[in-house]
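Q: Given only this backbone (521 positions), what sequence would you predict?
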């Protein structure tokens, strides 16, 4: 038990930051999903406490995800009651549990690194663009909405334009003071002072926001924030009243076709989003730990079952909360579990205090989190790595910004795979010419994807020449390639082409051999 808490000095402040990031997102995702705000908080609690405990990831944080809002909103509006929809959430958990036992977690290993980094950068840019309106007091769009296209023919950019015209002076003051506090806490000077490592900057931001608004109410009432610019959470007289208010699934509809289909759809999308998030979190983990993907699917499955049973909306591993956990210094799963505990305790005992928090203060926290994900340095590194890395990276960012998370990642993956295949075509086989002599060197792995390249090379070799096939570095050669070489060898004698081979014999030694009426084995 002692080892579990040995990193509490890092995990405790990180859990506060993640809690403050998760709070408005849980409420916002629920509202965007056409569900009651409390259902998002339930999913956040379960994602932190249950999934956090069961997960094999040290830094991943789970909760309600914006990527599921369209599916959830459609399902809630289609089904007769919310209680019937909850059956789909429970079934989604069962399906995810099965996917974990079927070892479907391997899917995440086939996503190009440039796409994962592009996803992280896109999330960072989205956080900045989506939170800028909240920073200046334009709070017409729910916190959890990350899609480019919004209701009423609005989109991310039109919302920014509206924010410029309809800003709130009090919110701007609180927002910019909050940004200043966070930048100060992130400076090297304060980081060098030990006491400031124990105080989460995000907590001071929230306290400063509440304090400034209280001062506005007393001395500058024209600057004080109205209810719509503050966190809005239902208050319960007692913890018992909270638990009694929770909706429970109606299992009489468990075999309904629509319920089963919705459950499977949620399981599939939630699993993909979880694996993507997990892969991304491992990339930014300072210790470069590798999270067990199949265990994560099982943990997510149990988490969705519990969330559905308690009346919550579906959950996934969420990159926004996870990256906030990393950037604020979290070390182990304790920070994720504690953030779930803070959500539970705050709802039970201090909902009135939470309702005093300005949304502009929370926006400042999210904007700084977004900036850390999308630094200029990241773009420069990918540009220097070459177009094979830079183009999929940029395409992924643009696709996510202009569509949504899953569609954008799909476009990014298609682009990434194109460049992987293109690199394979170019790098698999090398041709060199020197006065009638030709060297064809095979790289380490040569697959059927290199067949067109090899055929074009062989077509350029004229009569009465010498060809050396160098396979000494090759560990794998596809049968299509072997057959193509054999066909060339058979036809070589009729064209006065002398063929030689350089390869490894059974004793591991290099040797040259001239072809004499035989084919490659």
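A: Predicted residues:
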């Amino acid at each position: 038990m002692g080892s579990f808490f040995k990193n509490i000095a890092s995990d405790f402040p990180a859990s506060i930051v993640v809690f403050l990031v998760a709070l408005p997102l849980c409420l916002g995702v629920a509202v965007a999903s056409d569900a009651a705000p409390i259902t998002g908080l339930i999913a956040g609690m379960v994602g932190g406490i249950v999934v956090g405990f069961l997960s094999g990831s040290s830094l991943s944080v789970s909760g309600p995800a914006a990527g599921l809002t369209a599916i959830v909103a459609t399902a809630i509006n289609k089904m007769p009651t919310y209680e019937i929809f909850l059956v789909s959430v429970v079934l989604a958990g069962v399906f995810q549990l099965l996917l974990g036992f079927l070892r479907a977690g391997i899917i995440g290993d086939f996503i190009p690194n440039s796409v994962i980094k592009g996803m992280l950068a896109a999330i960072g840019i989205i956080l900045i663009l989506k939170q800028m309106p909240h920073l200046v007091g334009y709070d017409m769009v729910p916190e959890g909405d990350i899609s480019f296209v919004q209701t009423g023919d609005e989109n991310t950019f039109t919302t920014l334009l509206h924010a410029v015209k309809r800003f709130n002076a009090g919110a701007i003051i609180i927002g910019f003071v909050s940004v200043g506090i966070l930048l100060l806490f992130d400076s090297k000077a304060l980081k060098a002072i030990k006491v400031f490592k124990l105080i989460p900057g995000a907590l001071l931001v929230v306290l400063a926001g509440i304090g400034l608004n209280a001062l506005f109410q007393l001395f500058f009432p024209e600057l004080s924030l109205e209810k719509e610019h503050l966190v809005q959470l239902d208050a319960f007289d007692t913890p018992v009243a909270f638990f009694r208010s929770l909706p429970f699934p109606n299992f009489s509809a468990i075999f309904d076709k629509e319920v089963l289909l919705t459950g499977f759809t949620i399981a599939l999308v939630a699993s993909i989003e979880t694996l993507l998030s997990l892969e991304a979190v491992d990339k930014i983990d300072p210790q470069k730990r590798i999270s067990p993907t199949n265990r994560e699917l099982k943990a997510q499955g149990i988490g969705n079952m519990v969330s559905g049973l308690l009346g919550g909306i579906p959950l996934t591993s969420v990159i926004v909360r996870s990256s906030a956990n990393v950037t604020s210094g979290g070390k182990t799963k304790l920070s994720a579990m504690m953030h779930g505990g803070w959500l539970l305790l705050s709802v039970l005992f201090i909902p009135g205090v939470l309702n005093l928090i300005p949304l502009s203060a929370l926006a400042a926290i999210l904007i700084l989190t977004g900036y850390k994900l999308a630094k200029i340095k990241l773009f420069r590194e990918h540009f220097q790595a070459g177009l094979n890395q830079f183009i999929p990276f940029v395409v992924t960012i643009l696709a996510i910004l202009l569509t949504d998370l899953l569609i954008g990642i799909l476009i990014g993956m298609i682009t990434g795979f194109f460049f992987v295949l293109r690199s394979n075509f170019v790098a698999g086989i090398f041709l060199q010419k020197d006065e009638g002599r030709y060297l064809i060197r095979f790289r380490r792995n040569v697959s059927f994807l290199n067949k067109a390249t090899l055929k074009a090379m062989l077509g350029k070799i004229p009569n009465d020449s010498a060809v050396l096939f160098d396979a000494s570095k090759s560990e794998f050669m596809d049968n299509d390639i072997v057959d193509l070489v054999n066909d060339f060898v058979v036809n070589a004698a009729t064209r006065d082409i002398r063929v030689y081979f350089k390869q490894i014999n059974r004793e591991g030694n290099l040797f040259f051999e001239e072809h004499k009426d035989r084919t490659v084995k």
